[in-house]
Design goal:
The chain has 25 helices and 2 strands. By secondary structure, the chain is mainly alpha-helical. The chain has one domain. It has a two-stranded antiparallel ribbon. The longest helix has 30 residues. The mean pLDDT is 91.
């Protein structure tokens, strides 16, 4: 048998991911785009419901308050998504609620000045206003770093090797929102996971009118089937004598959203009252804003691959961070109870559907705004058990993580230096946040526990984020270990041409501002 040729055992690196049906600036038909946009909207509902459902009861809020917060969060998600796709990075990314803000927000909820309020409704309003004030102040971090191009300067220290752990852990770091949540209701979680994989992968060649229906709409079909199945189990009394935890995760009528939702309600700024400002709260929230910035940086690079675009140039990335800061400011003004970041699950859906079209995401933003104002209809979709979303996350988060690993093709992985940096950054990126989570569950406070609450929030938030820990470790090691003699091993010859807007002719096609705005904001 003849020895294999080199080209038969290796694959040449590719600037743009191949195999996508539609890239960032090519569009499916209007009918298909609307259906795909609705699918992205349904997926984004999961996080938009989960965060308020967890936080509002701790604040003393009612089911009616929870519905209003969910509606407001979806409304702002839609606005922020439109702003980002039009004027920010212009990548097809949904800008949704972020779990990174949980630590400082829970700290505000437990502030003694708020917990001492006896009336639950007044405590809810005062806590909401305190969170709003902290978000408004903290948003200035991303606004300044983005629009001043400081983040673009910082990104010069990034390389393909340094970005691999960051992008990978944007997906892998969310493992606790995958199967651990599926396991809370295996009778609907496992079938959802199997059905989604079968439709999107094994039956993807099934066509109806020359359209790969099962691949393109695998998520929508799977959710519909399993949601109906879950409703059947609920109506038949299967969970009647089960523990409360099982009922909350399995039943379709436990969210109490539909009955509490108004028919029409338009969110507006300062709807909860005037925000209150506290320096300690704001400083703790700044850590969450930094975490959101780092996680979004990884997510934007993943989205560019899954949209078959080039890596966003430094100034485009910084511009997107600036607009994301504006988004967090809107979160604070409207009172969404959390800040903004790129929705990782929606980035994964780009790869699952093989449609990276910007128009599809803009249509999904329209659905978010529309259904957030029509309360009853939005609450209907929001009543989908979170276990169903968690099953989809098992696939979608993994897909985003694998995009991060694909950046290794531009590096030399026969280098012991590169193996060391990649392995250590990935391991610590998973291990350090897990330590912080386990410590918090046992001690009811983070490892940082001093008399300075703002300092505790800052450290506990930073080191509870896998991508943030990975960035700190990977970028430090990559720029201090033999960095002068390892440019080629790090992938810099490929990376450097994407730093400047004019470094690659394709950047103009993907990232030019609409309405001829580049005349007023010329790219650097």
């Amino acid at each position: 048998m003849a020895a294999p040729k080199p080209e038969e055992i290796s694959h040449p690196p590719m600037d743009q991911l191949q195999g996508l049906e539609y890239c960032i600036d090519s569009n499916p038909s209007w009918g298909e785009s609307i259906a795909l946009g609705f699918q992205h909207y349904i997926l984004s509902v999961g996080t938009a419901v989960m965060i308020p459902s967890f936080l509002v009861p701790f604040m003393g809020g009612t089911d009616g308050d929870k519905v209003r917060v969910v509606q407001t969060l979806l409304f702002i998600q839609g606005i922020n998504t439109l702003l980002q796709t039009l004027f920010g990075t212009r990548l097809p990314t949904v800008i949704g609620g972020s779990y990174a803000f949980m630590v400082p927000i829970i700290s505000i909820i437990h502030d003694s000045s708020l917990t001492s309020i006896e009336d639950d409704h007044i405590r809810f309003l005062n806590t909401m206003r305190a969170v709003q004030g902290a978000l408004i102040v903290a948003s200035s971090i991303q606004i300044i770093l983005g629009y001043s191009q400081i983040w673009a300067i910082c990104s010069r220290f990034f390389s393909p090797l340094g970005m691999v752990p960051v992008i990978s852990l944007v997906g892998f770091g969310l493992f606790d929102r995958g199967f651990p949540v599926v396991g809370r209701c295996v009778e609907i979680g496992i079938p959802m996971l199997i059905l989604f994989v079968v439709f999107s992968q094994y039956l993807k060649n099934f066509h109806a009118r020359q359209l790969p229906v099962l691949e393109r709409f695998a998520l929508l079909i799977s959710i519909t089937v399993i949601w109906a199945y879950a409703h059947l189990l609920t109506a038949s009394g299967a969970y009647r004598h089960r523990p409360d935890v099982t009922q909350v995760n399995c039943r379709t009528d436990k969210a109490n959203l539909i009955s509490s939702a108004p028919w029409i309600k338009i969110p507006y700024p300062l709807q909860w009252g005037a925000p209150t400002f506290d320096a300690g709260h704001a400083f703790g929230m700044m850590a969450a804003v930094l975490v959101s910035l780092i996680e979004s940086t990884g997510a934007y690079k993943a989205a560019s691959r899954l949209a078959s675009a080039t890596i966003p140039p430094a100034h485009v990335l910084s511009r997107g961070i600036g607009w994301q800061g504006i988004g967090i400011l809107l979160n604070g003004l409207f009172g969404t109870l959390t800040g903004s970041t790129v929705s990782i699950e929606n980035v994964g859906l780009l790869g699952s559907t093989r449609v990276g079209s910007r128009r599809v995401i803009q249509i999904s933003a329209g659905f978010m705004i529309f259904f957030s104002m029509l309360g009853k209809f939005g609450a209907l979709f929001a009543s989908i058990p979170f276990t169903i979303f968690a099953a989809a996350y098992c696939v979608l988060f993994g897909l985003v993580a694998s995009v991060g690993l694909s950046f290794l093709q531009f590096t030399n992985m026969n280098s012991m230096r590169n193996l060391f940096i990649t392995g250590v950054a990935l391991f610590l990126g998973l291990s350090v946040p897990e330590y912080f989570r386990e410590y918090t569950l046992k001690a009811f406070h983070g490892p940082a526990h001093t008399n300075a609450g703002w300092f505790n929030d800052f450290l506990n938030t930073i080191f509870s984020s896998s991508p943030t820990v990975a960035l700190i470790v990977a970028v430090f090691l990559d720029n201090t270990l033999e960095y002068k003699d390892s440019a080629r091993d790090r992938g810099m010859p490929w990376w450097v041409k994407f730093r400047a807007f004019k470094g690659d002719s394709r950047n103009e096609e993907f990232y030019t501002l609409p309405f001829n705005l580049n005349r007023f904001f010329p790219p650097s």
